[in-house]
Every structure is written in structure tokens, then in C-alpha cells.
């Protein structure tokens, strides 16, 4: 008996707004509502046929609280009969939302599921839920845990610390890290000029293009101080704080036939793996190895790759370990240039990956990203 398939019908995103930029004043539910409405319009699907909406979001507090997936669906004026679920796997939240949507479809329990994510980091700063809790006298997530301290001691649990450890472990120089970071902007600006992102973006609040990419100024970047005293990681090597949302329609074979849909790709593989939570950002390496072993593919079989640019050393260490062709990786820039609206980035990567696979006639595309806690998701898509 053939395995059930999960098909990607379409995907859409907002432009990625920079911190305090054009999308800063948009309520998180309205950010999500915008892409949900655009997805329904683009696919022509009857919204009442959607079984579930699953959105990723971090810092689920204030305008991002109370199950923002459900709120966004209702704010879009869509049917009350469709439930919503909001999930948090840190930076990989909306990629995990896609995994859950695909699993629901492949299991036969759902036929049409919307996956995506939303994040307004201008309104709700990164780690706000944790800092807000601290204001009420609650400890940070690790303080006071006997088991955690017994296992990991008092080592800093910080993405900045992890990025420095990776740069040190893989002997990545500041010059190499800077070269990679500047190239992200160059590639993103080139993609924008060529109109590569235009079809995937639903303009919002007068913003029609990603606000992050800018012309590199090497002298200015070289003058930046390291984030950590004595380190080599600067702000220019980190993803940008951003606002945005993205949504993907996932369908079963039955739904494709019933609704006359034309899939753009199918989900070839989904998985997630963990690694050292102190290094934190290295999990894409074992996660990619696991995904390739499960599918029988080699890294050379993958035509295009999106690995989230949380920090420059994440991608460079991954390249060193996987032997992937750099010319197939983040070909239109990454989060260092385009931004990283945490809960939405996974779905944003999928949306952009689909478009580039179609432009190039690629068969396989792989997406992965590091996540807090030393985790990583991997999704492999096959273009149809």
C-alpha cells in the first residue's frame, strides 16, 4: 500500500519588516490574518473546508497570547468552525507547524491544514515572556532546576555564547564570518532587484518588500565591537530582529482531487533532532545527517538548501560538516539580511524555497534551522 502524501498547494508571506519598521504597529493577530486571507484567496479553497490552522509563535503573551492562531483566523473573518493551535519550538516553530500539518494529512486525520507562523518582535521583544515572568519573581527557565545544574552546571545558556563556541570549535575567523554575512545582503539585494520575492509576498501596511537588506559597508562592519568581550561575533553576523508572518496550505491526495487543487510540491521527509543545548546552534548538523540517512539521499542529491542564518557560524559549521555545495545554500540571502521574525521564519523559508525550486527546476529542496535547547528541524520537499 502506497504511503499517504502531504502536498503543498501554495504559500504566502508578508514582507519581513525591520525592528520598529513598517510592520511594527500591526497587531500580531492581524499579521497572521493577512497571510491567512491571502492564502485562501490564492488557493481558491473554501475556508470552511480547512480542518485546522497551526501557527508557530514565541513569547505568547499580550497580542500574541490566547492562541494567536485561532485569533488570527477569526481576525481574518474566516469561519468559526475551523480551530487553531499555536506552538512553540523556538526558532523552528513554524517549520514544526508544517511538520504537524503534514503528519495530520499523512495520517488521514485531516485533509486540509494551514501551517505557518507569526511574530511581531517590535511589539513583543525576544524573550519577553521570560523577562516578564522574572518581574513577578519567577526564575529564568533554568535557574533552580537541580537536574539541569547537575547535568550542565552553570554554563551560560545563550545563543550568543553558543555562536562564539561554534566559531571557536570550527576555527572560523572574524574575516570569514564577515565575508559570509555581507554576502547574505548582496544575494538578498540581487534577489529583490530581480523580483524573485515579489510573487510570494502579500504587501501589508504600505510595505511591499523586505526591509532588512542593505548595501554592505565593509569598513563599518569591521569597526563593530564583538557582542562578547574578546569574541569574534558582531551584530553584523547575527539575524535581524523582525516582524512578519507566513502561511502554507497542506493537502491530502483526497483533498487535491476533491477541490481541484494543483500542488506545487510534496513533503518528502520531515524530522527533528537534538544536540548540545550549550552549543545550542549545532543541531542542524546531526539533523541533516539523520534526514539524509532516513531518505537514502546524499547531500549532492539536494538541489537547493535553506539553513536559517541565526548566526554566520551556524551555516559555516554546517557547510564544513555536510560538505554541501555553498552555491546551493541560501542562494537569495538569509536571515542576516532578510530578517528573522522568530515564529514565522520556518514558514518564510519554505515559501521562498518553493519559489526558487520552481525558478531553477529543482527536484529536491532541504530546509533546516537551529532552535533553542539545541534542536533542529529538517524538511525535504520534492517539486512536482
UniProtKB/TrEMBL annotation:
Alphabetical keyword list: Acyltransferase, Transferase
**Top enzyme class:** transferase
| Stored Pfam families | Thiolase_C (PF02803), Thiolase_N (PF00108)
Q: Report the EC code(s) recorded for this entry.
A: 2.3.1.9
Question: What top-level branch of life does the organism fall under?
Answer: Bacteria
Limits of the Thiolase N-terminal domain = 7-253
InterPro entries tied to this protein? Thiolase (IPR002155), Thiolase-like (IPR016039), Thiolase_C (IPR020617), Thiolase_CS (IPR020613), Thiolase_N (IPR020616)
Q: Does the keyword 4Fe-4S apply?
A: no
Name a GO molecular-function annotation.
Answer: acetyl-CoA C-acetyltransferase activity
UniProt keyword Acyltransferase present:
yes
Q: Which family does it belong to?
A: Belongs to the thiolase-like superfamily. Thiolase family.
Identify this protein by name: Acetyl-CoA C-acetyltransferase
Q: What is the scientific name of the source organism?
A: Nakamurella flavida
Amino acid at each position: 500500500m502506497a504511503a499517504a502524501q502531504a502536498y503543498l498547494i501554495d504559500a504566502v508571506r508578508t514582507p519581513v519588516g525591520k525592528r520598529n519598521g513598517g510592520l511594527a504597529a500591526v497587531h500580531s493577530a492581524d499579521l497572521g490574518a493577512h497571510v491567512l486571507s491571502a492564502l485562501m484567496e490564492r488557493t481558491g479553497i473554501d475556508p470552511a473546508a480547512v480542518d485546522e490552522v497551526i501557527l508557530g509563535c514565541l513569547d505568547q503573551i499580550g497580542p500574541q497570547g490566547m492562541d494567536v492562531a485561532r485569533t488570527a483566523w477569526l481576525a481574518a473573518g474566516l469561519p468559526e468552525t475551523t480551530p487553531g493551535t499555536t506552538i512553540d519550538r523556538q526558532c523552528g516553530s513554524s517549520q514544526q507547524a508544517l511538520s504537524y500539518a503534514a503528519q495530520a494529512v499523512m495520517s488521514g486525520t485531516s485533509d486540509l491544514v494551514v501551517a505557518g507562523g507569526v511574530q511581531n518582535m517590535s511589539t513583543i521583544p525576544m524573550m519577553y515572556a521570560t523577562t516578564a515572568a522574572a518581574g513577578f519573581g519567577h526564575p529564568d527557565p533554568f535557574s533552580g532546576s537541580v537536574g539541569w545544574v547537575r547535568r550542565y552546571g552553570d554554563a551560560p545558556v545563550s545563543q550568543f555564547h553558543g555562536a562564539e563556541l561554534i566559531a571557536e570549535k570550527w576555527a572560523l575567523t572574524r574575516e570569514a564570518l564577515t565575508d559570509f554575512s555581507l554576502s547574505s545582503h548582496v544575494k538578498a539585494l540581487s534577489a529583490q532587484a530581480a523580483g524573485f520575492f515579489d510573487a510570494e509576498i502579500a504587501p501589508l501596511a504600505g510595505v511591499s518588500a523586505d526591509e532588512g537588506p542593505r548595501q554592505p559597508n565593509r569598513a563599518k562592519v569591521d569597526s563593530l565591537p564583538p557582542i562578547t568581550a574578546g569574541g569574534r561575533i558582531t551584530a553584523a553576523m547575527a539575524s535581524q530582529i523582525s516582524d512578519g508572518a507566513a502561511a502554507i496550505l497542506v493537502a491530502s491526495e483526497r483533498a487535491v482531487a476533491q477541490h481541484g487543487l494543483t500542488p506545487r510540491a510534496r513533503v518528502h521527509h520531515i524530522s527533528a533532532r537534538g544536540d548540545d543545548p550549550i552549543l545550542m546552534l549545532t543541531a542542524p548538523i546531526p539533523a541533516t545527517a539523520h534526514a539524509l540517512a532516513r531518505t537514502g539521499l546524499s547531500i549532492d542529491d539536494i538541489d537547493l538548501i535553506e539553513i536559517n542564518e541565526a548566526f554566520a557560524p551556524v551555516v559555516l559549521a554546517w557547510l564544513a560538516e555536510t560538505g554541501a555545495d555553498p552555491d546551493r545554500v541560501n542562494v537569495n540571502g538569509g536571515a542576516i539580511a532578510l530578517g528573522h521574525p522568530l515564529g514565522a521564519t520556518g514558514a518564510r523559508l519554505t515559501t521562498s524555497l518553493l519559489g526558487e525550486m520552481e525558478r531553477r527546476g529543482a527536484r529536491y529542496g532541504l530546509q533546516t534551522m537551529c532552535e533553542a535547547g539545541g534542536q533542529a528541524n529538517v524538511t525535504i520537499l520534492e517539486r512536482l
